[in-house]
Amino acid sequence: MREVSQPATEAIRLVEVLRALADPVRLELVHRLDRMGEDVCNTIGGDIDVHQTTLSHHYRVLREAGVTWTTIQGRSRLVRLRRDDLETLFPGLLDSVLGAHRRTAS
């Protein structure tokens, strides 16, 4: 298993996390990851109506901001939330953002 470049926990910055979560597509991806746990990129966002290259861009932004962790296994990219890291650095942030997303998406 190999991994792609992503920030160490101590390098995650609040402004970058908030910037990543501010986009509706990325917020929906995070919401889905929260429900599903770790999964393959194409499964998580496969039915979101954006081009594959755009979806890849959104995954990269989330990874580089420290919101997600991506692991490469063969030809698949497994993505999961960095919930523990985010909770340690910014207690309650992810739950607050996802709670607001659920309330407004209904």
Can you offer a commentary on this structure?
The structure is a single chain. The chain is an alpha+beta fold and 106 residues long. The protein has six helices and four strands; from the N terminus they run E-H-H-E-H-H-E-E-H-H. The protein has helices at 14-21, 24-36, 41-45, 52-65, 83-89, 93-105; strands at residues 2-3, 39-40, 68-73, 76-81. It has a four-stranded antiparallel sheet. Strand 3 and strand 4 form a beta hairpin. Helix 1 runs antiparallel to helix 4 (52-65). The longest helix is centred in the middle third of the chain and has 14 residues, at 52-65.
Describe the secondary structure blueprint for this structure.
Elements: E1 2-3, H1 14-21, H2 24-36, E2 39-40, H3 41-45, H4 52-65, E3 68-73, E4 76-81, H5 83-89, H6 93-105
Antiparallel strand pairs: 1-3, 2-4, 3-4
Tags for this model:
106 residues, four-stranded antiparallel sheet, 4 strands
| Residues in helix, % | 55-70%
Using DSSP, what is the number of strands?
4
Q: What structural class should be given to the helix and strand makeup? A: alpha+beta
The shape, in one word, is globular
Sheet of most strands: 4 strands, antiparallel
Approximate strand percentage:
15-25%
Report mean pLDDT, rounded to a whole number. Answer: 89
Sequence of strands across the biggest β-sheet: 1-3-4-2
What is the rounded Rg? 13 Å
The stretches of 5 or more residues where confidence is low (pLDDT under 50) are: none
State the order of secondary-structure elements, H for helix, E for strand.
Answer: EHHEHHEEHH
The quaternary structure here is single chain
Query: How many DSSP H or I helices?
Result: 6
Separation of the first and last Cα atoms:
38 Å
